[in-house]
Structures are given as C-alpha cells and as structure tokens.
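User: I've been trying to design a sequence by hand for this structure and keep getting stuck. Would you show me what you'd pick, starting by listing the structure so we're on the same page?

Assistant: Good idea, let's start from the same input. This is the structure you sent:
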C-alpha cells in the first residue's frame, strides 16, 4: 500500500507542527543537559553487560 503525495505532505506538516509545539521543552532540556555532569559509566556499564551476555550466548551455541 503506497501513500499518495498529499498524505506525505500532510504527514510532514504534522511532524513540523509537533516539533514547533514541543520546542520550548526541547530547548530547556538541551540547556539543562549542558549543565549536568557527564556520567559515562552509567552508559557504558549496561552496554558492556549486554555485549558480554551476547558473546556468552554465542559461545553456548
């Protein structure tokens, strides 16, 4: 099922309206994230755990 041109245009307009509607919150979040301290261990630890678990599963096969 292929969408027509006017459906694509309507979807694009809808996406732009949602972005403009949420822009104040996005702007505030970006400003707060620049002031927040970085926590790389909180990001890298779960990723490393998943990678190790996947390697373990591959070794079990």
């Amino acid at each position: 099922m292929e969408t027509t041109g006017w459906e694509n245009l309507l979807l694009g307009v809808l996406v732009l309206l949602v972005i403009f509607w949420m822009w104040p919150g996005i702007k505030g979040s970006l400003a707060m994230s620049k002031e927040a301290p970085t926590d790389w261990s909180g990001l890298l630890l779960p990723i490393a755990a998943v990678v190790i678990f996947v390697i373990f599963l591959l070794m079990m096969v």
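That's my pick for every position. To get oriented when you compare it with your attempt: The mean pLDDT is 89. The longest helix spans residues 5-35.
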